[in-house]
Every structure is written in structure tokens, then in C-alpha cells.
Amino acid sequence: STATTGATRTQRPPSPPGERARHLRQMNWLGGLAGWIWLAIVIIPIYWILITSFKSQDTYFSDNPMVPPTSPTLENYRLVIESNFPHYFVNSVIITLGAVVPALVISFMASYGIVRGASNRLLQFINGMFLMGLAIPIQAVIIPVYLIIIKLHLYDSLIALILPSIAFAIPLSVLVLSNFIRDVPKELFESMRVDGASEWRTLWSLAFPLTRPAMVTVAIYNGLAIWNGFLLPLILTENPNI
């Protein structure tokens, strides 16, 4: 009883709510400062790009780069539009959507098959092949890709950019989606099977809704990578009017 009494005396009383809130406010100063610094790092280049777009070429470097122009002009925008920018923008949209959508569908179905057929050696071998694709950068295989496109008579076309983009987007997509599908409780798949649902119905009625957040993440990542791609258009296209 003496030991219990001593332990009771040494216990700290719980902190009042006001003290805890004050402590949290003090701890958030560092996080708030880091947040404002990061906001400045992101906003300042965007601000510079915006105000510079309204400056004439003669005043790019003669004036303070962070000061808005005294006599703004739309000449830069007119020059961009006259340089066939809408055509290039539409091409970028076609290539991005034409690569992201097939890559997402193929990766989703492949991931479902890999997870559901975990005991199938062929599927595991295919999964290993997909994972090997993560270790091969596009720069290492650009010459074979170029030769394949030439053999298929697809050089200087949009499809020449779409097909390799699909191939390079699949490995990471399969890795992310298969891990996400693997986290779905097996009891849900078993209940669908008991209700008489086929694998195809289970794929689109159960796995697809539950993996939608991962699919959106993969779509955004691949979309940005394909939109900002430079090497494939540089090597596989030549005509600016395609």
C-alpha cells in the first residue's frame, strides 16, 4: 500500500486545456514559418513569370525584375498565339490523354490479376517484368524505341509518342495499384464470389471503386510526366505541323 501511495503522489496532474492549447500554439510557430517560406518559394517565380509576360522584350532586364511593368503590353501573348500555340496545346492534350487513359486501364486490370492470382507463377513472372521496368530509364532505351518506331513506320506522328509513353507509365502504375488492391479485405472478394459475381464484375464493381483514390494519384503523376516530357518528342518527331 505504501508503494501504491508513493506512485500515486508522483503522478502528474493532467494539464489544463488552456495550457495545452497555449503549448500547441507555441509549437506551431515553427511550422507556420516554414509554411510561409515554402509559399514564398512557390509564389515568387509564378509572380515573376506573370509580370514578365506583360513586359516588352526591351524591358526584361533593364528594369527591376520584381516590379510590375509601368506600360504593360499583350505583344508576348500575340506572338505566342501566332506561333501556332493552340495547335501544339491540342497535340499535348491528345498525347497526354491518349497515354494516361490506356496505361491506367491496363495497369488496373493487370494489378487486379496479379493480386487475385498470387499463386499463379505466370502472373508473378509478369509482375516481376513490370517491376523491372522501374529500373530502366527512358534514356537507356531511347535508341531501341527509335528503331522500333522507324520499323513500324510511325515516325513523326502522335502515335509514336503515345505508345512509348504508355509503356513507360505502366510499371509504376502497376506497383501502386497492386499494393492498393492488396489492401482490400479478402472477405469482400469472397462475398462477391458467394453472390455469384464473376471476376469481371468483381473487378469493376468492387476493386474499381475502392482503388479510385490510387488511380487518381497515378493518373495525375503520369499526366504531369507525359505533359512535361521532352526526350520522346525530341527524338521521335521532326515535323512541327503534325
How do you describe this structure in short?
Helices cover 73% and strands 0% of the residues.
What does this structure look like?
- The protein has 11 helices and no strands.
- The relative contact order is 0.09.
- The protein has 242 residues and is mainly α.
Encode the helix/strand succession as letters: HHHHHHHHHHH
Rg from C-alpha positions? 28 Å
Overall 3D form: extended
Low-confidence stretches: 2-9
- Strand-pairing-aware structural class: mainly alpha
Proportion of residues in β-strands: under 5%
SS elements, strand count = 0
Please give a handful of descriptors for the protein shown.
11 helices, disordered N terminus, mainly alpha, 242 residues
Secondary structure layout:
Layout: H1 2-10, H2 17-53, H3 75-82, H4 85-116, H5 121-132, H6 142-151, H7 158-182, H8 186-194, H9 199-210, H10 212-227, H11 231-236
Helix pairs in contact: 4-5, 4-7, 4-10, 5-7, 7-10
